[in-house]
Amino acid sequence: MHVMAISAISDGDGFWGSLKKAHGRLPKGAKWTLAVATADGSKAVNVIVHDSVDAVRDFFEGYAGQFAATEYFEADAANAVGLPK
Question: String of b and e for 42-59 (b: at least 16 CB within 10 Å)?
Answer without folding.
Answer: eebebbbbbeebebbbeb
